[in-house]
């Protein structure tokens, strides 16, 4: 089976800004992959290239074995995406948003209707399915976007901060559904999050900063390698930010150990 995602020497420049800087890594089919990095690290830009919404300046990217530049139609058929920025049609009801999505994906009516009910019940918007999306709270809108991303059961699901602004109950549900989809459908999840608690639940994580890959591995291995207390300490060490509520010795630990990891990544 080809890797779910593969990027090689990927570069994306916006004028003088190099958002993605010689990025290379692969994600295996079925993995839950955490794509981490501070604001502006290049996460969303990379996801947009993988979803064929942006062309790279140089380098290659493929999803489910299809080249993002040469075979964008096949890539699009293989993926689902939950965008960082809101992308619902606010004039439509929850039901209509999903119906429209299912039609774009050519889901047969019976399957479409079944999945619409399943995902709407799951995110607890079934009772509100005939309300216009504009009238939803921020969290309800996000839940509807998550429901929409899960509806057509893609091979690779890109989730750009899927749990942002959600209450713990909904986050918990989304993680439960992700586990279910991984077990049943072998879906690959490629997600960004600023929650280190969520990142620690990923099979592997990549940590980027300024478009460059600084660390890649299983969270527990990264923590052990850096002799850090947890992934947050690794993250702050690698990206060079001061630790929140940390003392000098915390910073010393992670900075010293992380030098080794930079060379390794
Ligand atoms: N369309 C664009 N035009 C110009 N610059 C852009 C564009 N999109 C992104 N950038 C720049 O590229 C860099 C990476 O942005 P990106 O959105 O990929 O970061 P990110 O890692 O997703 O950050 P965040 O955690 O804040 O979502 C930033 O410096 C950003 O300003
Ligand atoms: Mg982003």
Order of helices and strands: EEEHEEHEHHHEHEHEEHHH
The structural class is alpha/beta
Structurally, the number of domains stands at: 2
Percent helix among the residues?
40-55%
Low-confidence stretches: 242-265
Distance between the termini: 25 Å
Account of the 3D structure:
With 265 residues, the chain is an alpha/beta fold. The chain has two domains: 5-217, Rossmann fold (3-Layer(aba) Sandwich), CATH 3.40.50.300; 219-265, no CATH class. It has helices at 43-50, 72-78, 94-104, 109-122, 138-151, 168-185, 196-199, 219-225, 231-238, 248-264, and strands spanning 5-14, 17-27, 32-36, 58-63, 66-67, 79-82, 156-160, 188-192, 204-209, 212-217. The strands form two sheets. A six-stranded mixed sheet has the order 6-7-8-3-9-10, with helices on both faces. It binds adenosine-5'-triphosphate and magnesium ion. Residues 14, 17, 19, 37, 39-45, 84 line the site of adenosine-5'-triphosphate. Magnesium ion is lined by residues 43-44, 84, 160.
């Amino acid at each position: 089976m080809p890797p779910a995602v593969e990027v090689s020497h990927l570069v994306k420049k916006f004028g003088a800004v190099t958002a993605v800087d010689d990025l290379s890594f692969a994600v295996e089919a079925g993995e839950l992959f955490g794509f981490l990095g501070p604001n502006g690290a290049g996460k969303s830009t990379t996801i947009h290239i993988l979803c064929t919404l942006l062309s790279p300046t140089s380098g290659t990217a493929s999803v489910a074995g299809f080249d993002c530049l040469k075979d964008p139609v096949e890539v699009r058929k293989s993926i689902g995406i939950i965008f960082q920025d809101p992308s619902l049609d606010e004039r439509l009801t929850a039901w209509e948003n999903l119906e429209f999505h299912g039609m774009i994906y050519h889901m047969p009516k019976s399957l479409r209707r079944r999945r619409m009910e399943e995902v709407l019940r799951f995110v607890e918007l079934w009772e509100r399915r005939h309300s216009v999306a504009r009238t939803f709270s921020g969290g309800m809108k996000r839940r509807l976007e998550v429901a929409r991303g899960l509806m057509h059961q893609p091979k690779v699901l890109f989730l750009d901060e899927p749990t942002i602004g959600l209450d713990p109950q909904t986050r918990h549900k989304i993680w439960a559904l992700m586990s279910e989809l991984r077990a049943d459908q072998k879906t690959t999840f490629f997600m960004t999050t600023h929650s280190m608690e969520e990142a620690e639940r990923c099979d592997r994580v990549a940590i980027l900063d300024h478009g460059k890959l600084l660390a890649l591995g299983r969270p527990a291995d990264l923590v052990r390698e850096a002799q850090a207390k947890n992934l947050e300490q690794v993250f702050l060490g690698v990206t060079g930010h001061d630790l929140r509520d940390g003392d000098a010795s915390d910073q010393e630990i992670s900075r010293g150990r992380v030098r080794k990891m930079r060379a390794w990544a």
